[in-house]
Amino acid sequence: MQRVTISTVARHAQVSRQTVSNVINSPHLVREETRKRVEESIAALGYRAHQAARLMRTGRSRLIALRIEPTRDGINGSVLDRFLHGLTEAADAAGYRVMLYTAADDAQEIAAFDALLGAYDLDAFVLTGTNHGDPRAAWLTARKVPFVTFGRPWDSPERHPWVDVDGAAGTAQATRRLLDAGHRRIGFIGWPAGSGVGDDRRSGWAATVRAAGGDPTGLDRMTPDGVEEGGQAARDLLALADPPTGLVCASDSLAFGALQVVRAARREVDVIGFDDTPVAQAVGLTSVSQPLGQAAASCVDLLVSLLDGDPVDQPSQVLLQPSLVIRQTV
Amino acid sequence: MQRVTISTVARHAQVSRQTVSNVINSPHLVREETRKRVEESIAALGYRAHQAARLMRTGRSRLIALRIEPTRDGINGSVLDRFLHGLTEAADAAGYRVMLYTAADDAQEIAAFDALLGAYDLDAFVLTGTNHGDPRAAWLTARKVPFVTFGRPWDSPERHPWVDVDGAAGTAQATRRLLDAGHRRIGFIGWPAGSGVGDDRRSGWAATVRAAGGDPTGLDRMTPDGVEEGGQAARDLLALADPPTGLVCASDSLAFGALQVVRAARREVDVIGFDDTPVAQAVGLTSVSQPLGQAAASCVDLLVSLLDGDPVDQPSQVLLQPSLVIRQTV
DNA sequence: TACCTCGGTTTGAACGTTCAAGGCAGCAGA
DNA sequence: TCTGCTGCCTTGAACGTTCAAACCGAGGTA
Fold it and tell me: Is the pLDDT higher at A153 or at B75?
């Protein structure tokens, strides 16, 4: 079965190669009547443009790449996966394809950039999460390779397009929900200070407590992520003289740990998690849900405008609002 | 920054294009001394073969595609994701890249095949799960497009390479574990008959119970997947005159539902799940774990031998053994 | 001497597409 | 009538690679 090329179509429609190409890429250059004839031939023959050949001429591959993490913290890992799915769909719709790569650290990831650009002429990268003073962003910027990050560059002054979810707004919503349910003392279990995401989530809780006339001091705990850790922090808070009756957590892992402790102690404490993971769904934990599909779509939007659009030089940023998924815990 | 092409290298090493190409693809044709000189030039200039150009000549893209599901059952979804990660790593190591696509049903997936083959000249596909009389496998076979399925073709006589995990062996292991723990009446909660995977898992339990001199009759329940459903089935089994004291389940969703019912009823019943999902990890549920990394690696192995190897015509099959991850429930 | 073989190398063409340049009517303005 | 413009279309070249064929010198054989 021979490949149907642009020349096959050209012969069939009795025009030149270039006219067929124009029908596809710049239809306004072609007379209405000719255009129709060519379009019919394309449909009749089932012609599809060959991306590799197109790439050779134009230097554009219509391919974007995303790193897929080598290690997973089982409970929170699904967040990236949902994002990945959204990205594939949005890219599909915009005529792009998603290619995957792995890397164990930043240096390896930069090597992967190099390899992918060299071998496949990738159009753009999507980075998930940015570390402090991220070398990847710097490398890509230096080479003028388009990219978007999912996650704000918390401390670097690097200006590049990003998409993120407003974590503070999420914990604020969760806190308000607890306030509305009648709780007056609301605690927070989060990560050690210094991670942009973690600090952001803590700030939403603290601000909301204060806005309601309360005092958050002493009602939060800092611990690495994990079910055990969340449980320990909860035990600690429940042992206070005037313990909290509601808990907002920075992750579902922490929240799940806390929930188990609360239930085991038969205390009337409501717990809210973050990320709406499968675990939250399974145990009926109320949780803050990130609009990952939307986030992915926004990433694609930004990339497409970067790639296809006019060279607008100020980078664009998108901050999305999370929503609270109410389950049994509140 | 100009691209380093094979001609750049050729000039630098004072040889012709073709010699450089030979150094890369057929080193045995080149004199030792020349080879070294060219290799040094390649390293010095940081040359990387351009896949698109290579593809145009050879018709081989070194790209494999995998579908990423549009919908997820939250609790079991992570299985595919772990497979995906393993696939990307294994493909990377073999010099291939993984490209993603989405499709809502078989017809759409076939359209996606067509589009991907037309536009990017994909080398091969990896299909996850095969339905009864799968039209996708037939389509690919008819067009002689190489592919591997992760999951056996349960009823179709279609002969194609596949990789699968021995589900019956998994439930057999789980059942034996319960027997060893002293249980004599062991129940099973699984899916309605007719799904190859589900029937396979049930058979492992039934055979092991019989082998131990027991009688499985009446001790299993069939229900669609889900936490609620698993709980209902468990309640049902516990209400028997002579109820089981151990439960093997076809999925972690079912197992988790059953576990909650058991705990709420304060019964001494051990539960074992299937798939070792994040939920099982979080709640400490013993579960049968599929070697997904290995499965992915096997898929890549089969594809590579299909693509690069001699045309061996008997299709290869790989059946991997799962392992039991012991947690608190037994 | 003439011819063949063989290892090592080069040369031209081709893959399918788009860019850049040009051709050819038809029409308007001088 | 000539010139220039405009709309529509075609032609040649190029992207970076590999295939197929040719070349070239050294050595072996008749």
Answer: A153
Residue A211 has pLDDT above 60, yes or no: yes
Q: What is the 3-state secondary structure (H, E, C) of chain A?
A: CCCCCHHHHHHHHCCCHHHHHHHHHCHHHCCHHHHHHHHHHHHHHCCCCCHHHHHHHHCCCCEEEEECCCCCCCCCCHHHHHHHHHHHHHHHHCCCEEEEECCCCHHHHHHHHHHHHHHHCCCEEEEECCCCCCHHHHHHHHCCCCEEEECCCCCCCCCCCEEEECHHHHHHHHHHHHHHCCCCCEEEEECCCCCHHHHHHHHHHHHHHHHCCCCCCCCEEECCCCHHHHHHHHHHHHCCCCCCCEEEECCHHHHHHHHHHHHHCCCCCEEEEECCCHHHHHHCCEEEECCHHHHHHHHHHHHHHHHCCCCCCCCCEEEECCEEECCCCC
pTM for this predicted structure: 0.90
Q: At what angle do helices A167-180 and A196-211 cross, to 10 degrees?
A: 30
State how far the Cα of B189 lies from the Cα of B260, in Å rounded to an integer: 14
- Tokens 């607008």 found at: A312
pLDDT of B64:
97
How confident is the model over B127-155, as a mean pLDDT? 87
- pLDDT given for residue B173 in this prediction: 98
Sort out which chain B residues have CB atoms less than 8 A from A230's CB and list them.
none
Minimum-distance residue to D13 (CA–C1'): A57
What percentage of residues in chain A have a pLDDT greater than 70? 93
Looking at the complex, does the CB of residue B74 fall below 8 Å from at least one CB of chain A?
Answer: yes
**CA dihedral sign, ordered B235, B264, B271, B196:** positive
What six digits make up the tokens of B137?
A: 């496998």
- Residues of chain B with Cβ-Cβ distance to A56 below 8 Å are 52-53, 56
Give yes or no for residue B328 having a pLDDT over 80: no
Q: Flag whether pLDDT at B75 surpasses 80.
A: no
Best A6, A56, A63, A78 residue to mutate vs chain B (most B CBs within 10 Å):
A78
Residue B42: per-residue pLDDT: 97
- Rounded mean pLDDT of chain B? 91
Q: How many angstroms separate the CA of residue B310 from the nearest CA in chain A?
A: 22
User: Crossing angle for the helix pair A6-13 and A32-45, nearest 10 degrees?
Assistant: 120
Side by side, the strands of the sheet bearing A270-274 are A220-222, A186-190, A246-249, A270-274, A286-289, A323-325
Q: Does at least one atom of strand D sit less than 7 Å from the CB of B25?
A: yes
- Cα Rg of chain B (Å, integer): 25
User: Residue A239's pLDDT is what?
Assistant: 95
Chain A CB contacts of B285 under 8 Å are none
Cβ(A208)–Cβ(A249) below 8 Å: no
pLDDT at A72: 53
- With a cut of 70, say whether residue A45 has pLDDT above it: yes
SS3 B64: strand
Q: Which pair of structure tokens corresponds to residue B299? A: 């898929």
Residue range A73-132, pLDDT digits in tens: 554 556 777 899 899 999 999 999 999 999 988 999 999 999 999 999 999 999 987 767
